[in-house]
Amino acid sequence: MSGLDVLVVGATGQQGGATARELLAHGHTVRAMTRTPKSPAARALALAGAKIVRGDLTDCGSVAAAAAGADAAFLVSDTFDAGVEEETRVAIKGVEGFRAAGVGHVVYTSAASADRDTGVPHYESKRRVEHYLREQAVPHTVIGPAFFMENRFFGLRRIDDGWILPSPMPVDRQLQQIPVDDIGAFARHVFEHREQMLGQRIDIASDELDGRHTADALSQTLSASVRAVAVPADAARFGPDLAKMFDYITRVGFVADVAGLRRDFADVHWQRFGDWATKQDWVAQAGRAEPQ
C-alpha cells in the first residue's frame, strides 16, 4: 500500500514512540507531535526520519495545525501526570483538533476492559473518551492494551541467592500482558487496514501467564533464580487508582482473545513474554518505583 501520513500524539512516550517507530519502519510518514521539540526523545525520532511538530493537547488549535493534511492520527492520553478528569478533557480537546483538521481515521489507545464497569479511575477516564468518539461519529478505532510487560521492571530486586519479582496479584493468577512494541505494531496494522478496522474496539494482549511462570522465564533470561512474591496491592503502596486496578484484574481479569489475535493479525508478530524478556536489560531496568 502507499505510505500514510500519520500524526502521532505522545510520540516521545512509550506507546506513541513504539507506534512512530513501527510506522517509520514500514515506510509511512510520521509527524511526531510534542510540546518539547528539542528533547532527546524528539531528536531521536527526527534522526529516525520523523517530522517533529510542536503541539499541545490542551490547545485544540495547535492540534489542528499539527494534523492539517494528515491521513490519520494516533492518540494516547495520560492519567498519572494529569489526573483522570484532566485526561478526559485534554483527550477530547485532541479529538476536536483532529476533527477540525479533517483527519480521516483516529486510533485511540485506551485500556483493556475500559469499556466495562471496572470502577478503576484511569479506565473510566478513557471510557469517557471512547464514548465521545462514538457520540461525535469520529472515524476511529479503539485499541485496549492489557498489562504492560514493561511493568515487570518495577520492584524487581536482587537478593543474595537470586532475584525477587514482586507481584501485586496472587502469583498463580493468570495475567494478560503486552509489550509496548506490540501495541505499536498493532496500531500500524490498524492504520494500514482502515476500512476493515473503522468503528472497532479491540482489547489486545500478546501473552497470558501467572507470576510463577513469569519468574521462571526471567530465571532463564537472567541465568539466576527469580522468585515471584505476592505483595499487598493496597492504596498505601500503589495509590488508590492502581490499587483499584489490581483488585479488578485479580477478581475479573482481562478478556482479550490472545489466540484469535495471533491468528487474525499475524503480521504483528506478537511476542511471548519469554521472547520479549531476552531482549531487555533487566539489570539496568530493575528497581523502578511503580507501574504505569
Automatic annotation (TrEMBL):
Family: Belongs to the NmrA-type oxidoreductase family.
Ranges in coiled-coil conformation: none
InterPro entries: NAD(P)-bd_dom_sf (IPR036291), NmrA-like (IPR008030), NmrA-like_oxidored (IPR051164)
Name of the protein described by the UniProt record: NmrA family NAD(P)-binding protein
Domain NmrA-like positions: 6-235
Annotated PANTHER family: NITROGEN METABOLITE REPRESSION PROTEIN NMRA FAMILY MEMBER, NMRA LIKE REDOX SENSOR 1-RELATED
Organism: Fodinicola feengrottensis
Keywords (A to Z) from UniProt: NADP
